[in-house]
Amino acid sequence: MEMPLSRRAVLLGAGCLLAAPAAARAAKEADVPYVPTPPEVVEGMLDMAGLKAGERLIDLGSGDGRIPRAAARRGANALGVEIDAGLVARARSLTRLDGLEERARFVRDDLFTVSLRDADVVTLYLLPAVNERLKPKLLSEMKPGARVVSHAFDMGDWPPEERREIADKRVYRWTIPAIAGGEWRLTRAGGSTATLRIDQRYNRVSGTLDGRAIRDALLAGAALSFAADGTAYRGAVGDRTITGDGWHAERID
Questions:
Q1: In angstroms, rounded to a whole number, what is the distance separating the alpha carbons of residues 187 and 132?
Q2: Collapsing DSSP states into helix, strand and coil, what is residue 126?
Q3: Are the C-beta atoms of 7 and 179 separated by less than 8 Å?
Q4: What element of type H or E holds 96?
Q5: Is the pLDDT of residue 18 over 80?
Q6: Alpha helix (H) ranges present in the chain?
Q7: Range 153-170 average pLDDT
Q8: What is the DSSP string of 25-71?
Q9: pTM for the complete prediction?
Q10: What is the tally of structural domains in the chain?
């Protein structure tokens, strides 16, 4: 389901969202030189992503296809997106030679227009400005719990959950958070209710329960946990509901 703009703004901030149309236009003008990712960094990126067999990986700016091919060798289904026709042809040729055509494919496309909705993992080796332009698309299209791994460059004010040095190269990882921000009507097992308000910036959350501050609030993908009035709450955030153990909450419009 497409997330209403007002809810996305809770997570991304108005400035980030308003930049999205300009980002698509800027993508066609972006000059991202092709610099191959070293093999040990390729494998390290997939390790950081926790890529599993059967998952779907999309590599934005896939060059000669080395990341999708490596993902395919691990049993994942991989798509490489590359604007340079020559590099797409080379990636397809190498994939045929490796016998990986069933699991790795390549398209010549704009990385700002390709759909990311089915991706479990997105990998990047772009430039800082391009990462910044991509950020709204990653956050709004990818499902909660999906992972983003970037070689060399971060995402500005979206802090990574993990950073590693691999063969003298920096690699960053993020997990896409659910949209938890807003007001919820929380109902406990005994039937009592309370108003839960969550303030969210990326995966950082805080808030109140009936006006009293919640503590130890954490959001990891769709998994939300916090404590209030001596009680620990854990649940899974959906579009309009949070389903917990002995409690649930419904979004207040």
A1: 39
A2: coil
A3: yes
A4: helix 85-98
A5: no
A6: 5-12, 14-18, 20-29, 39-49, 66-73, 85-98, 128-141
A7: 97
A8: HHHHH------PPPHHHHHHHHHHHT--TT-EEEEES-TTSHHHHHH
A9: 0.86
A10: 2
**Structure tokens given for 241:** 């509901």
**Average model confidence (pLDDT) across the chain:** 90
> Are residues 90 and 203 both part of a single domain?
no
- Is the domain of 197 the same as that of 218? yes
Q: Which amino acid is at 137?
A: K
Residues 21 and 121 in one domain: yes
The Cα–Cα gap between 73 and 184 comes to: 44
The 10s digit of each residue's pLDDT in 168-210 is: 999 999 999 999 999 999 999 999 999 999 999 999 999 999 9
Instruction: Classify residue 129 as exposed, middle or buried by CB count within 10 Å of its CB (0-12, 13-18, 19+).
Output: middle
Vertex 178: Cα angle to 13 and 190 (nearest 5): 120
Structure tokens, 243? 């389903």
d(CA 79, CA 122): 10
Q: Which amino acid is at 145?
A: G
Q: Are strands 231-237 and 223-228 parallel, antiparallel or unpaired?
A: antiparallel
Q: What is the pLDDT of residue 11?
A: 53
Measured CA to CA, the distance from residue 139 to residue 153 in angstroms comes to 17
Using an 8 Å Cβ cutoff, are 126 and 133 in contact? no
Nearest C-alpha neighbor of 66 from the set 96, 101, 91, 49: 91
Q: Is 112 helix (H, G, I), strand (E, B) or coil?
A: coil
Helix/strand/coil for 20: helix
Q: Using N-to-C axis directions, what is the helix angle for 128-141 and 5-12, rounded to 10°? A: 130
> Region 95-121: what's the mean pLDDT?
97
Count CB-CB contacts under 10 A for residue 201.
16
Task: Tell me, yes or no, whether 51 and 159 share the same domain.
Answer: yes
Give the separation between CA 58 and CA 67, rounded to whole angstroms.
Answer: 9
Tell me the two tokens of residue 174: 């993020």
